[in-house]
């Protein structure tokens, strides 16, 4: 009997701690400049292997980086010191307005590897367990994946956040024009979180988020794929990759309890 209970506890813990491989988030950043070429990334968004509470970020405690710290390692096979500086600059920008720290990996089990064997900019969402990736195609700094804002965008995915336009409240604020979307990218516009898995922190829909696609993202025909419902909101607000929006900062700070424990 005791043995059974012990095995059961072990199994439960195992399930709880097992690495959860969520889908990597591909990006729209390259569409205007380069053909988007798929890596060997599973694109099926319709079913995530585990359903856990999420915000636009995930609520599951294991998926949040512990100690407000994200260990990382950069595979220098692909990058120059300018690339490294740009990656670290993006980290400093996020650290500056939140309580997060990005630290070089030493012994940590869970960490992010930056690698360049891709033609895209891609990140996994939240902590997945073990090694996980941010893939940034090595380009001239300040272009494509190496724009500062593009790296920040990927880092915010890594902290646990999804694209704004797949939030469950999106249909109140935007309309998706499916007929204009490149058929191979339609999955990127599907809402696959359920409303009880998401919390917008009462901040409403954030058109200015660094995680919001621009209005013609993945267009097959040059026409908009995302239109704003409120005529007072300018569509070109969407898709900025300059800095975190006020909402981005507030969401990260809430998700990581930045204001609860100021000195930790
Ligand atoms: C938590 O993070 C801080 C700052 O990065 C670090 O100094 C400290 O050693 C970490 N603590 C643990 C338990 O990992
Ligand atoms: C760095 O990337 C190269 C090329 O993909 C790969 O062969 C190598 O194993 C990577 N290094 C580590 C330590 O993962
Ligand atoms: C950090 O934030 C302050 C205040 O918001 C700002 O003046 C400064 O330029 C920021 N520094 C960096 C490196 O982002
Ligand atoms: Zn993205």
Automatic annotation (TrEMBL):
Q: Which residues participate in Zn(2+) binding?
A: 153, 157, 163
SUPFAM superfamilies, alphabetized:
Metalloproteases ('zincins'), catalytic domain (SSF55486)
Q: Which cofactor does it need?
A: Zn(2+)
Q: What CDD domains does the database record attribute to this sequence?
A: ZnMc_astacin_like
Keywords assigned by UniProt, alphabetized: Hydrolase, Metal-binding, Metalloprotease, Protease, Signal, Zinc
**Per the UniProt entry, what are the Gene Ontology biological process annotations, in alphabetical order?**
proteolysis
Q: Which residues form the active site?
A: 154
Endpoints of the signal sequence: 1-17
Does the record carry Ribosomal protein as a key word?
A: no
Q: MF terms per GO, please? A: metalloendopeptidase activity; zinc ion binding
Write down how the cofactor binds this protein: Binds 1 zinc ion per subunit.
Source superkingdom: Eukaryota
Q: What InterPro entries does this protein map onto?
A: Astacin-like_dom, MetalloPept_cat_dom_sf, Peptidase_M12A, Peptidase_Metallo
Q: Where are the transmembrane segments?
A: none
SMART domains xref list: ZnMc
The segment(s) forming the Peptidase M12A domain are 56-259
What's the EC number here?
3.4.24.-
- Write the protein's name: Metalloendopeptidase
Which source organism? Clunio marinus
């Amino acid at each position: 009997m005791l043995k059974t209970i012990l095995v059961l506890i072990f199994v439960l813990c195992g399930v709880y701690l097992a690495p959860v491989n969520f889908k990597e988030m591909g990006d729209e950043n390259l569409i205007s400049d380069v053909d988007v070429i798929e890596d060997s990334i599973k694109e099926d968004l319709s079913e995530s292997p585990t359903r856990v509470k999420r915000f636009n970020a995930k609520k599951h405690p294991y998926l949040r980086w512990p100690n407000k710290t994200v260990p990382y390692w950069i595979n220098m096979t692909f990058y120059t010191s300018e690339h490294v500086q740009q990656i670290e600059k993006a980290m400093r920008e996020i650290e500056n307005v939140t309580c997060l720290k990005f630290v070089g990996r030493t012994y940590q089990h869970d960490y992010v590897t930056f690698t360049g064997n891709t033609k895209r900019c891609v990140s996994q969402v939240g902590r997945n367990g073990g090694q996980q990736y941010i893939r940034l195609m090595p380009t001239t700094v300040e272009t494509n994946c190496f724009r500062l804002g593009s790296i920040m965008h990927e880092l915010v995915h890594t902290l646990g956040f999804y694209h704004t336009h797949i939030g469950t409240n999106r249909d109140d604020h935007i309309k998706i024009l499916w007929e204009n979307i490149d058929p191979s990218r339609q999955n990127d516009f599907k809402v696959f979180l359920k409303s009880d898995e998401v919390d917008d922190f009462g901040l409403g829909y954030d058109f200015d988020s660094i995680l919001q696609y621009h209005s013609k993202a993945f267009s097959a025909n040059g026409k908009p794929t995302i239109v704003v419902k409120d005529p007072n909101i300018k569509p070109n607000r969407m898709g900025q990759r300059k800095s975190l929006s006020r909402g981005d900062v507030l969401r990260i700070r809430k998700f990581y309890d930045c204001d609860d424990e100021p000195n930790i």
